[in-house]
Amino acid sequence: MDLKFAGESVTGQAGGYTVALVFSGGYEVRIETPFMLRQPGGDLEVTPGETELPDLTGRVVTLARADDQGGLRIDFQDGSRLLVLGWGSTYGPIGAAARRVRASGAKVSVAHLRHLNPFPANLAEVLAGYDKILIPEMNRGQLRTLIRARFLVDAVGYNKVRGLPFKAEELADAIIGLLDGGATK
Q1: Residue that is last in its domain, among 46, 76, 106
Q2: How does pLDDT run across 10-49, given as a tens digit for each residue?
Q3: Which range marks the domain in which residue 166 is found?
Q4: Axis-axis angle for helices 168-179, 91-103 (nearest 10)
């Protein structure tokens, strides 16, 4: 379930046996169970009352979702100006490539669409938060065409039509190339 506070920034936080995050839109989230905080320097497993939480003030939420079992996922922009947007079979390679790029010290954000029709309601706000958008696809760029037409953003495609999956290394190279101001194929 989409929690509808993507695009909001953290304005306050408190730790202890409950982690509390306050967002710019007036939302407040209280987390009482262990959770994973994904960040560029590596993932941090947070147990309220035991783990010191890094300062999240000013960071912008790119994804906020809860599943049917009560799991909470909140992803932050982390100052990244590049979003890698994927769907379908690109999920694994995009995640692995982003981890490689982050390990090198660069900032990159990732979003993965589960369905294309309708697009998620907050996709326009998420896309507007980035200067560059890279869409790797195992086809000729159908998602890129839809995103460009619907949201009027200059998304760049990285397409592969050879019947072989992306390798994390090739996607990491494409991401770094785009971060360095180059273009992809």
Answers
A1: 76
A2: 888 888 788 888 888 788 888 888 777 766 556 777 888 8
A3: 82-179
A4: 60
